Backbone:
């Protein structure tokens, strides 16, 4: 499970991070001890929960955040910063600490999902890259979790690579897998992250042949009777008839990619059963999202293929997280000019639960103040991710993160799993200490 | 302007492309001559035009589409395809032709924006990668063109990297630049594509210091009086006062990132003028999209910073283009089971214009049939991109593509530039020959 590419990530950065660095190096403030906090002011579009995605990719990207000769030369040639700053960048290696919510953890408005502590210089340059990863991966993971929840245990295949940037496709497949999707179409996600890949044939394969029958024969010859035959190129009823006549009643599955898939699935099930193909599964795809998946619950569907909606965050393609300076040399700081105020001070969080395990509230409190009481059913939410610039030893695996999503969804109050727009499933509370 | 990374793009592909290949190699159909066509069935969300983005990245990605030992070994280890197919993939180099709309060209429903011709084997494996690039880049470019059009000549800075996948951020900066944005915050876009980068300071820089005055002094010392001071960390009126007292009346610009930026810009202009800073420009940012930009036309704003909305395609994060097999050994083919029918046959396109240069209609016609008359003011839309697998010599530069977007927008009927939802600005017509 390759986590880093060995390629520098240092220029995946906003110009102003380096001009701030340059000015701060010049006046000595670059060495002040700072805490930057990543959080979302709100959940997107009436969502009731978010799921943190990308944490492990952030850890890898920080390790690759080095300014090699090529990066320094580009910055010199374009005059982005001065020679003193270039020398500093050439030696840069993040030396601070990172704590955060483990990947797959639920989050709510104000949850401190990641905290970067170190000198201003160390921490400021990571802003853009950290946010890119968390905002993208959390948007996809949050949408995917709603789909997995709507699928209610039926398998889901992620097949949206073609609808998003080619590298974002790999990260999307990974996020969807953490959310509970079973397989992905994306081969690079298989190589980079060990995610099982799947796929058989598109309409093009049928059209390539002189008849649907010849196409099915070729596919079964190459991939076996356990394959999935796509039956909606011409006429679905005839397609199913041909599929079973070619593959026999032990055909693995059929796929329907268009039309009113609920109605078609019912008709297909009857037809397959009548043909003796009682074990042949029905896979549906074609513009499915969490609402369509939920609407198909009562239909004889065995698996869903989901594309566009999952890789675009189902209407919310970015999680809207921000990276805010909250503490300088132990002093809380915050912007104050508008409704966009942040709460100053480095924060920690715990989640309170009922004895039954149902989540009650997200408690976000100042690290410098008295810690709220941690009840028997409560849980601290941040864990160490890097110490002195080095990743900690026991980062969660993808499997751990998958399990965490499942546990998180189980812990939500029942309203929290509703797909309709509403308030966050649990409130975020800030103990009185923070108002001081 | 590095176009390729030299890294293999071959696994940025859906599993089923390779299983189809495997089955087609086994039954001999892999060598049939095919044409695949990329088009959008519709424009997103009431949009009146689309702009093709990513063409040049597609050309580069095809050149890097090679299965090296690492890719072959992954496919062997995971059993995706058989040994015969692995041998074929190890020797794969695209040997066909690609024609398409040049980057920056307008497109409409059914426009054949890219056509890949070659053997089935040659062309089928490129589907996912080609669509990923075109769908992402066209979504961003199309949204960005609406913003550039709304800005009506005022400069726009792209600063959305933190809201999208870290690699998508680079492609987004590039697409926005083609659309007419002047600069980007993204340093890698500067390195990879030669796009001018810009940026000065964030709120964090002010908060790092003991006072706003000290922060401004440090910034001016490092970046000169021509810099842009961010004045809304605490109180904007006092921020502007401090900014001019520190930098003098020749301060380059102030930036306002929150609040009702229209009202604030007017107040700021009056205050700056009263302080003698009549040449100090006003940059506004903070959740701007094309509608907000248009609403600010009458305000004294000198430049816009745009983030989230541009990198997420302003509500339409994917262009929804498809890659359809339309011709096999000279025979038109098309799916027929549902409303999603395609029109069979390899197609060409021309755009008709009035003598004034205003576009009239998009004519999409069969390459095999009689060509429609090409009037004096009409224009053929597809150009060669690859021949025998090699990129053609005179691919458009980014500057060419920027000019093409400008010309395209000028050619639209006036309704076409309206931001409100509506029909495509010009109709797509299919001459009668095609019904045959």
Residues:
């Amino acid at each position: 499970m390759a986590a880093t590419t060995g390629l520098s990530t240092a220029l995946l950065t906003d110009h102003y991070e380096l001009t701030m660095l340059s000015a701060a190096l010049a006046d000595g403030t670059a060495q002040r001890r700072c805490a930057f906090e990543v959080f979302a002011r709100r959940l997107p579009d009436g969502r009731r929960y978010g799921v943190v995605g990308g944490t492990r990719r952030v850890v890898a990207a920080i390790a690759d955040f080095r300014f090699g000769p090529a990066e320094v030369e580009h910055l010199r040639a374009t005059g982005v910063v001065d020679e003193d700053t270039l020398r500093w960048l050439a030696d840069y290696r993040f030396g601070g600490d990172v704590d955060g919510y483990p990947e797959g953890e639920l989050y709510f408005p104000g949850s401190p999902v990641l905290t970067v502590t170190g000198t201003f210089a160390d921490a400021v340059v990571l802003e853009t890259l950290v946010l890119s990863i968390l905002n993208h991966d959390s948007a996809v993971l949050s949408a995917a979790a709603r789909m997995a929840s709507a699928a209610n245990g039926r398998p889901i295949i992620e097949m949206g690579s073609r609808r998003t940037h080619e590298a974002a496709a790999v990260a999307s497949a990974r996020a969807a897998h953490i959310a509970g999707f079973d397989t992905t179409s994306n081969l690079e996600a298989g190589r980079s992250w060990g995610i099982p890949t799947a796929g058989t044939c598109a309409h093009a394969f049928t059209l390539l042949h002189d008849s649907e029958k010849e196409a099915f024969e070729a596919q079964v010859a190459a991939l076996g009777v356990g394959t999935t035959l796509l039956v909606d190129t011409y006429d679905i009823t005839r397609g199913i008839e041909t599929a079973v006549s070619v593959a026999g009643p032990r055909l693995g599955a059929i796929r329907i990619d268009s039309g009113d898939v609920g109605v078609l699935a019912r008709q297909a099930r009857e037809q397959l059963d009548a043909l003796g193909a009682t074990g042949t599964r029905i896979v549906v795809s074609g513009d499915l999202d969490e609402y369509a998946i939920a609407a198909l619950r009562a239909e004889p569907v065995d698996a869903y293929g989901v594309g566009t909606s999952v890789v675009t965050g189902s209407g919310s393609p970015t999680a809207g997280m921000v990276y805010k300076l909250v503490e300088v040399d132990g002093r809380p700081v915050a912007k104050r000019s508008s409704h966009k105020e942040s709460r100053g001070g480095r924060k920690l969080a715990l989640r309170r639960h009922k004895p039954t395990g149902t989540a009650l509230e997200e408690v976000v409190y100042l690290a410098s103040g008295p810690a709220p009481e941690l009840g028997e059913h409560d849980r601290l939410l941040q864990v160490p991710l890097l110490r002195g610039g080095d990743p900690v030893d026991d980062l969660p695996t993808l499997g751990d993160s998958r399990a965490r999503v499942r546990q998180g969804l189980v812990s939500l109050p029942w309203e929290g799993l509703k797909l309709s727009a509403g308030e966050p499933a649990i409130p975020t509370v800030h103990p009185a200490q923070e108002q001081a």
Notes: Chain A touches chain B through 101 residues (CB under 8 Å). Residues 266 and 300 of chain A are 6 Å apart (CA to CA). Chain A has two domains: 15-140+316-435, 155-313.
